[in-house]
Amino acid sequence: MDFGFSEEQEMLRDAAKRFLADNCPSKFVRQMMADPTAHDAAFWKKLVELGWPGLLIPESYGGQGGSFLDMTVIVEEAGKVLVPGPFFTSALLAAPLLIEGGSDEQ
């Protein structure tokens, strides 16, 4: 039994590594640690353009329709560079809660 990532997930991992190497260097992370909000709107916009915050949201609601295993690939790479901001809380905690417990209007 193969417990490795699929070819698509490995491609996602490579894309995430490249994006984070280019957009989330240690200097940027340190700046965000010193910021009371730890949030940079331009960086967040780039994450949104990649679709990462909506990865676990079904396509019928405008998300990517990805799996938790797909999100694992992103979260592993994000953890390696200490991605600042609300990614974990919004994409990995709030989105599944809304999908499971919220109404269609929410």
Explain the overall architecture.
The structure is a single chain. With 106 residues, the protein is mainly α. The chain has one domain (7-101): Acyl-CoA dehydrogenase/oxidase, N-terminal domain (Butyryl-Coa Dehydrogenase, subunit A, domain 1), CATH 1.10.540.10. It contains 5 helices and no strands. The chain has helices spanning 7-23, 26-34, 41-50, 68-81, 87-101. The radius of gyration is 14 Å and the shape is globular. The model has no long low-confidence stretch (mean pLDDT 93).
SSE string: HHHHH
**CATH homologous superfamily descriptor:** Acyl-CoA dehydrogenase/oxidase, N-terminal domain
CATH C-level label? Mainly Alpha
Count of helix runs: 5
Helix content: 55-70%
Which descriptor suits the 3D outline?
Answer: globular
Mean pLDDT: 93
Number of beta strands = 0
Query: Which CATH architecture?
Result: Orthogonal Bundle
Secondary-structure class: mainly alpha
Largest sheet: none
Question: What is the CATH topology classification name?
Answer: Butyryl-Coa Dehydrogenase, subunit A, domain 1
Record the SSE blueprint.
Blueprint: H1 7-23, H2 26-34, H3 41-50, H4 68-81, H5 87-101
Summarize the structure.
The chain is mainly alpha-helical and 106 residues long.
Primary descriptors:
106 residues, mainly alpha, Butyryl-Coa Dehydrogenase, subunit A, domain 1, globular
